[in-house]
Amino acid sequence: MSTNPVLVWATPLQAAAMAAIHEAAFPPGERWSADSLAIQVGQPGAFGLIDPEGAMVLARVAADEAEILTLATVPLLRRQHRATALLRAALDHARAIGARAMFLEVSETNIAARTLYEEIGFRQVGRRPHYYGQVAALTLRRNLS
Questions:
Q1: Which fold has domain 8-143?
Q2: I need a surface site. Which of 18, 53, 61, 67 has the fewest CB within 10 A?
Q3: Structure confidence at residue 3 as a pLDDT band (50, 70, 90)
Q4: pTM score
């Protein structure tokens, strides 16, 4: 089990690697393409981190708020604390560049992800019915101060 994965800062050049992780982690219809990831990671305020063994996070900061756009771990590497390491690194980076809070959205049926986010201090602040088809998205927030 890897509790301290090596993380690499993502640039648009790593978009294909990020897309491969995303494809392995999500079902069709929820996957982000390499082109989409390259555009997102190249935007002002956006940043990505990759665990080259098979996990990634993409986030952005605008003013004093940050948002996790996507987080993915390939199925064979889940429950090895890789997503935790990525989230903590994203929280630290967002705080360092001035964010005071971090937001994300998660499917209300994704119990594993919801548990992870709760363990890291995220709390529900909203609910969006039918955000993922028939499934609601929960909006979660964590203070960074």
A1: Aminopeptidase (3.40.630)
A2: 53
A3: low
A4: 0.89
